[in-house]
Design goal:
The protein is α/β, with parallel strands linked by helices. The chain has ten helices and 14 strands. It has one domain: UDP-N-acetylmuramoyl-L-alanine:D-glutamate ligase, CATH 3.40.1190. Helices cover 36% and strands 25% of the residues. The strands form two sheets. The protein has a nine-stranded mixed β-sheet, sandwiched between helices. It is globular, with a radius of gyration of 20 Å.
Amino acid sequence: MEVSPLSNDELNEILFRVQDVRVAVVGDFCLDAYWNIDLGKSEPSLETGKPTRTVSHQAYSLGGAGNVVHNMVTIGCGEVCALGVVGDDPWGRELIRLLGQRGVDTLDLLVQSDNWSTLVYAKPCVKDDEQERIDFGRHNQLSQDTATALIDRVGARLDSVDIVVVNQQVREGIHDPAFRKGLLNLVRENAEKTFIVDSRHYSESYLGSWLKVNDVEAGRLCTGGHGAADAVHGEDAITSAATLYDRGDCPVFVTRGGRGLVVCDENGTCEIPGVQAKGEVDTVGAGDSMLAGIALALAAKADATAAAQFGNLVAAVTVQKIRQTGTATPSEIRKIDSC
């Protein structure tokens, strides 16, 4: 199906409406920690005799569902609430602080003290060379009480938001079997509410929701999988989108990196071409940017095709921000649309 590009008026209408949109983001909220190591300040430890690794400066940024939220705020979303779980630790407090700085409602970020650490990706760097990453939270176990409480919090938010965005980042996050079952029940019981899911591992658990999935994962869900991403042909992505739409009876967005995405809804299937990037690109966080753009446009009453085009523009801005998890402002989105 042929798709006309968004007109300036259509783009401006979405950006205007986004200011009044209310979104709930349910997911794996993570913290990215950057530690710059100065080997010139190293000295032997008195206790072990081993050389120390001295941090010259440090920085922390939002990852996972936190990056989705950050993108939404930067685009201009009127109201965002975060629903997830953090640990009773300094990382959790820093994550909540960063969200609060951006005006995000964090009342439903629950703290689980036992068997839970805030999800952190610590990245020591020597000059521009990233060292072995240190991960926190890979042994998390969501308690039944926490799962139940979080599902209850999501249910309580439904009447006050325009869309629910579901992020699943890691297997050790909130999406254990009990939580997935409870969330799917909410989806089924609230058919009038749009839930859009972006899941690395459990997309099949949320059929009946709107899905945003990459072409490799879509192929795996439909046919047992593909190899590298560049092996997924456009025809395969189209077929996967149609198959997943038929299974869940809800719109599907199959992303294809720099080649754009495929959308399938009740009107059929269409391809949205990628936006040509100039120079070096950095794709870290591009999927989060795409999800944020699609979800905000849907909440702003755009149809699935227009939402896909808007998400495509947002992602095209962020991939051109090198060595950072980029976000896109309204002016940057307008600028790249005019290129």
